[in-house]
Amino acid sequence: MRADICSSDDYDTRDRLAAAIRTLGGVHEGEWESLGVGLHRFHFPEGELSVFVDAWLVDVAGPDQLVQQVLQLISGRDHG
User: Fold this and answer.
1) Under a CB-based contact definition with an 8 Å cutoff, are residues 66 and 50 in contact?
2) Which tens digits make up the pLDDT trace of 12-47?
3) How far apart are CA 57 and CA 59, in angstroms?
4) At residue 74, what are phi and psi to the nearest 5 degrees?
5) What distance in Å separates the CA atoms of residue 56 and residue 32, rounded to the nearest whole number?
6) Which of 24, 28, 25 is nearest to 36 (CA)?
7) Which of helix, strand or coil describes residue 32?
8) In DSSP terms, which residues pair with 46 in a beta bridge?
9) What is the pLDDT of residues 42-78, one digit of tens each?
10) What pLDDT, on a 0 to 100 scale, did the predictor assign at position 79?
11) Which domains does the chain have, with CATH numbers?
12) Who's near 56: CB < 8 A, 6+ residues apart?
């Protein structure tokens, strides 16, 4: 599943995305402090979540259930 998250200049939503990834236990392929421009890959037991950030937008792609959990956390809904 793929989902557009926000425009690249929506830093509040980008921060919520990073927090959701941390909450769900995502492990980045390398060191990371923020979601800068580029492709970021996070590993979860459910599979890999890719986060792509360019000059215009931020999107995610991965297993349906994982993307849905991320979207629910970003929106403030309980993911239980």
Assistant:
1) no
2) 999 999 999 999 999 988 777 778 899 999 999 999
3) 7
4) -65, -40
5) 21
6) 28
7) coil
8) none
9) 999 999 999 999 999 999 999 999 999 999 999 986 5
10) 47
11) 2-29+36-75 (3.30.310)
12) 7, 8
